[in-house]
Protein: Site-specific integrase
Organism: Komagataeibacter melaceti
Amino acid sequence: MSAPRNPGQRAVPAGAPGGMQLFDRDGSRKYLTVAERARFLRAAEQVPREARTLCMTLAWSGCRLSEALALTADRVDLAGGVLVFATLKKRQDGIYRAVPVPPSLLEALDLVHGLREAQRRRGRGAGVRLWPWSRMTGWRAVHAVMVAAGLSGPAASPKGLRHAFGVAAVSSGIPLNMVQKWLGHAQLSTTAIYADAVGAEEQDIARKMWG
């Protein structure tokens, strides 16, 4: 007997084994809603500065936790308004993508991590990691903020923030090929899963159609 679904949620599609999905096998949502992401960011304001900027980076760029932890001072383009990530999931090295982020995030990164000072030095901060943490340390920092925000389940994770970014981008009318670029997906079909938005996000899309 299949697990019951929460009201307003769709059954997990059965036809794509191994493919990325927005719900787990129990029908639990794997992404944060807009309201939940806002709660997460408010809770992040109460934690140490380095943890706060990590949480902000994950929420506003949609990057993977490992990609955030690999970010170096020279890859924060303050003038261009983008973060440049090494796309770590691709098979070959040396693949980068630039993701536009809000000015508030850039200002916080500069304030907390001394980016302008680092970029004035020889090498412009190359090799100077913003968070010289292990993956587990980074995960624990994010998890603590999720708990403080009252969030739990599959969505309460760095991956939940990444999925939230994808859903929010598609719901805002960002073209799929642009979202694909920002998220570093090899295939557009992977990005297209975010077009299958549900709940409040689906209602927003429907309202745009109704005019």
Q: What stands out?
A: The longest helix spans residues 135-148. The first strand starts at residue 76 and ends at 77.
